[in-house]
Design brief:
Blueprint: H1 4-32, H2 38-66, H3 71-89, H4 96-123, H5 128-142, H6 145-149, H7 162-194, H8 209-216, H9 224-229, H10 244-254, H11 261-274, E1 301-305, E2 311-315, H12 325-332, E3 340-342, E4 347-349, E5 354-357, E6 363-366, E7 369-371, E8 389-390, E9 393-395, H13 400-414, E10 423-428, H14 438-441, E11 445-451
Antiparallel strand pairs: 1-2, 2-6, 3-4, 4-7, 5-6, 8-11, 9-11, 10-11
Protein name: Acyclic terpene utilisation N-terminal domain-containing protein
Membrane topology: Multi-pass membrane protein
Transmembrane segments: 7-31, 43-63, 70-91, 97-120, 132-153, 165-186
């Protein structure tokens, strides 16, 4: 809730909610004032809303093709602004054609910016807990604009509706300004991250001074591929992304370069398939009941990598488990948050992936597209934060609270509490006060002391 970007996003949201609610309530009345009956006015709103729906699809596809969102929030908002300025400028209902024409601009601009704003803001909130809280806050506060929009087209201002049109136009100007400010701010933050001179604002991870100093002093952080090219048989490394060793080995073997995005993406996904050991051979499979034979010695997965980035998933022969389209799909979706899968070397596009059975315990994977990697990725640094210990005492019979107090007193007497940051006792479960059976009477309670 302390992330200022969320509150800029709320203003963008209000640009939609106030304007959409206000116009939706007033549109039939505005058309009826041109001399139509109420039924005719309702029917005449259909083309206006249909145009807004078509405009939404058009701008969504265009934004996806251009791989940007913010511009396709500003442009539709600007179109809607033209509509509001238009209806404010004409003599109503003296020009019925224009009065009916300008609302097409309003829906054609307001509707596309709704989906653009939601997807853009959501994509720029990370990690997941910040996205969850931020989007919930955005929806709650943003939708309050509906209460405003529903009350700005006042009957005594008909047919000009200065407040309704004027306030809608004003909040759209504020939304456009907020979108531009947010875009420039995100661009600035990303540029700073690229220089490694600022805290990773998106994830909340601090880049330690020791790492910054080591990097700036020119310490040589060589790649796995470089080590293999120097003749290394074994490469000792710190923590790396799970699939990166597969990428490095395949790139070395086939001589791929940094711009071999299609091939690198294939190796990236191949590494993802085998990074969790026997998950892909049935170890983490919801259809485990269909596993043949024993399940006590699952075979480890094997990747047969091709030079074009295609690969076959198989496993050790003579071991338990299986490799099927379903086990591979289950592993593919593990930890995947969307059609784009990010790595420091490449971004894999998964919406065209094809997974086909290629024989017993052999699955062919193709159709993976590669995209240039992002300018920055997170650095994970682990620090020694201390230790935690817990114990369990099972208490049975009656007087559980008194027994728990007695054990707690004894344990605290034996421990030096000054050595702990935290020492807490918790009792889980209780025997009923008047049990009707011996079975329920003998149900134990669990006293759990925890120390840090």
């Amino acid at each position: 809730m302390a992330d200022w970007k969320i509150y800029l996003a709320v203003i963008i949201y209000w640009g939609n909610s106030i304007s959409v609610y206000g116009f939706s309530f007033a549109a039939p009345t505005i058309i009826r004032e041109l001399g139509y009956t109420s039924a005719q006015a309702q029917l005449l709103t259909i083309p206006i809303y249909f145009f807004g729906a078509c405009s939404t699809i058009f701008f969504a596809r265009l934004a996806d093709r251009r791989k940007t969102r913010w511009a396709f929030i500003v442009i539709p908002f600007s179109i809607a602004l033209v509509g509001y300025v238009g209806v404010l400028s004409i003599t109503h209902p003296g020009l019925p054609g224009l009065t009916y024409f300008f609302p097409f601009f309003i829906t054609g601009g307001l509707y596309p910016s709704i989906i653009g704003r939601i997807s853009w803001v959501g994509n720029n909130l990370a990690p997941s807990f910040k996205r969850a809280i931020g989007m919930a806050l955005l929806m709650i506060v943003g939708n309050l604009g509906g209460a405003v929009g529903s009350n700005i087209f006042l009957e005594d201002q008909a047919p000009q509706y200065w407040l309704g049109y004027g306030l809608s136009a004003g909040i759209i100007v504020a939304a456009i300004s907020s979108t531009v400010i947010l875009q420039l701010s995100l661009k600035y933050i990303n540029a700073k991250r690229a220089e490694m001179s600022e805290v990773d604002d998106a994830a909340g991870d601090e880049v330690l001074e020791a790492f910054q100093k080591s990097f700036k002093e020119g310490n040589d952080f060589r790649s796995l591929t470089h080590a293999l090219k120097q003749g290394a048989d074994i490469v000792l490394r710190g923590r790396v992304a799970d699939a990166s060793p597969t990428i490095g080995i395949a790139a070395y073997h086939y001589g791929w370069i940094r711009t071999s995005y299609e091939e690198l993406a294939g190796a990236f996904v191949a590494g993802h398939f085998i990074e969790c050991s026997t998950y892909v051979t049935g170890g983490n499979f919801s259809g485990f009941k269909s596993l043949p034979g024993k399940v006590t010695n699952l075979g480890f997965p094997i990747i047969e990598m091709a030079s074009n980035g295609h690969f076959i998933v198989t496993k050790q022969e003579g071991r338990d488990g299986m490799v099927t389209v379903d086990t591979c799909k289950a592993q593919l979706l593990y930890e995947i948050q969307g059609p784009l899968y990010y790595n420091s070397d490449v971004v894999a596009r998964l919406d065209g992936i094809e997974i086909r059975q290629h024989g017993k315990d052999r699955v062919l994977v193709t159709g993976i597209k590669g995209i240039k990697p992002p300018p920055t990725t997170k650095v994970g640094i682990t620090a020694k934060g201390g230790y935690q210990a817990e114990g369990h005492y099972f208490l049975v019979g009656l007087d559980i609270e008194e027994k728990a107090d007695m054990v707690e007193t004894q344990v605290r007497h034996l421990l030096d509490e000054s050595k702990f940051l935290c020492l807490k006792f918790r009792t889980n479960g209780r025997c009923p006060e008047d049990p009707r059976s011996q079975c329920r009477y003998r149900r134990p309670s669990n006293l759990r002391p925890g120390a840090q």
